Amino acid sequence: MAPLTVLSTRKKAQTRLSRDSEIFTTIIKAIQEKKGENIVSLDLRQIPEAVADFFIICEANSNTQVRAIADYVEEQVREKTGEQPYKHEGFTAQQWILVDYVNVVVHAFQPETRKFYNLEEMWSDAERMEHND
């Protein structure tokens, strides 16, 4: 599996987000509505080398569901906040789709791919919060 390149090609915005930010809550709700599982947010704000304020990570059991989550996140964020993603990747293979809103990056994985990349371990210094119903 090839790594996604989007995170190394852009700079973090200057405005800081919180878990109460409209975009953050919209993303979490969209993932939950599409039945994303094992939803976790990583607060990266205290990590100087971090490329975003938050990662939101979830998993789905099929390519179709991974795609549906990513599509619905984009639709809901656009509808509720007017924001478009800076970039997205992974729509071809649909094993891991990344939707980048600069300060918050959404990662929708299939379980095996999530285990392989293990972002939670890579960013283990970040405060972790679960968002499961």
UniProtKB/TrEMBL annotation:
Report the domain of life of the source organism. Bacteria
State the UniProt keywords alphabetically: Cytoplasm, Repressor, Translation regulation
Q: Which GO terms describe its cellular component?
A: cytoplasm
Localization, per the record, is:
Cytoplasm
Family statement: Belongs to the Iojap/RsfS family.
Give the quaternary structure.
Interacts with ribosomal protein uL14 (rplN).
- HAMAP family in alphabetical order: Iojap_RsfS
Q: Which protein are we looking at?
A: Ribosomal silencing factor RsfS
Q: Name the gene that codes for it.
A: rsfS
